[in-house]
Design a protein that fits this description.
Blueprint (H helix, E strand, L loop, with lengths): L12 H9 L6 H4 L1 H12 L3 H23 L2 H18 L9 H19 L14 H7 L4 H22 L3 H12 L4 H8 L3 H28 L1
Helix pairs in contact: 3-4, 4-5, 4-6, 5-6, 6-10, 7-8, 8-11, 9-10, 9-11, 10-11
Length: 224
């Protein structure tokens, strides 16, 4: 097994947009805590097959978070690979009374923060999550109304993604974990090593900025 290679994660803006659009449902593994615990124990003991199973069941979730925070596929893939390298390295430190996915999110947030610092111009590399969605919609054998609805949803996803890219890092990370991944404010605070009050303030600020950004962009389209 080659740690960090995300071969089963879809490539391309349209495929990734579809993966990110919805809150990823829990798999049989994530819903079966005893099975997950056994896999973690085996992986920590050096069982590469067990680690690969953990990676398969969590890589799409990690990729979704890194893409939302970093704003482009290249950085998201680099970050995701680094996440699993760190998971592999530090898995022996994981305590079984911890929530594994909260622990995983913590590593993911740290990796994204480190990468964002190294690539201060990452916002300039932002690419639309729906660049090829319009062409894909036109190619679908669907009724015109359905194609238009799909295109509209894609445009909305793209607008929200661009709004996220304008936010300060901590606000972007907090709102992704809270509103996209569905974690509680307290869970986000633990992952961000912050207080619940601070996280609430960051999320409130982020939501207001996203609304303002979207209104400004829609206003410009109407004037054009």
């Amino acid at each position: 097994m080659r740690i960090g290679e995300l071969e089963k994660v879809p490539s391309g803006a349209h495929d990734m947009a579809l993966a990110i659009e919805i809150l990823l449902p829990g798999t049989a593994l994530t819903q079966n805590q005893p099975a997950l615990t056994r896999l973690i124990e085996r992986a920590a003991a050096g069982d590469s097959a067990a680690f690969e199973q953990i990676m398969i069941h969590s890589q799409q979730r990690v990729m979704a978070v890194t893409w939302r925070i970093l704003g482009n596929e290249a950085d998201a893939r680099d970050a995701s690979q680094e996440v699993f390298l760190r998971v592999y390295k530090y898995l022996k430190r994981f305590k079984q009374d911890q929530d594994f996915f909260a622990w995983l999110y913590g590593i993911t947030i740290n990796v994204c923060r480190d990468l964002a610092r190294k690539r201060q111009r990452h916002s300039d590399r932002f690419t639309s999550l729906g660049d090829d969605a319009g062409a894909a919609a036109m190619a679908m054998p669907a009724e015109q109304e359905n194609a238009e609805e799909l295109l509209l949803r894609t445009q909305e996803r793209d607008l929200i993604a661009r709004a996220l890219a304008t936010l300060p890092y901590k606000e972007r990370a907090s709102i992704v974990l809270r509103d996209v991944e569905g974690l509680s404010t307290e869970e986000v605070a633990r992952i961000m090593k912050s207080s619940a009050t601070t996280v609430r303030s960051q999320i409130s600020s982020a939501r207001k900025k996203i609304v303002i950004f979207c209104r400004q962009q829609l206003g410009r389209k109407e004037q054009a």
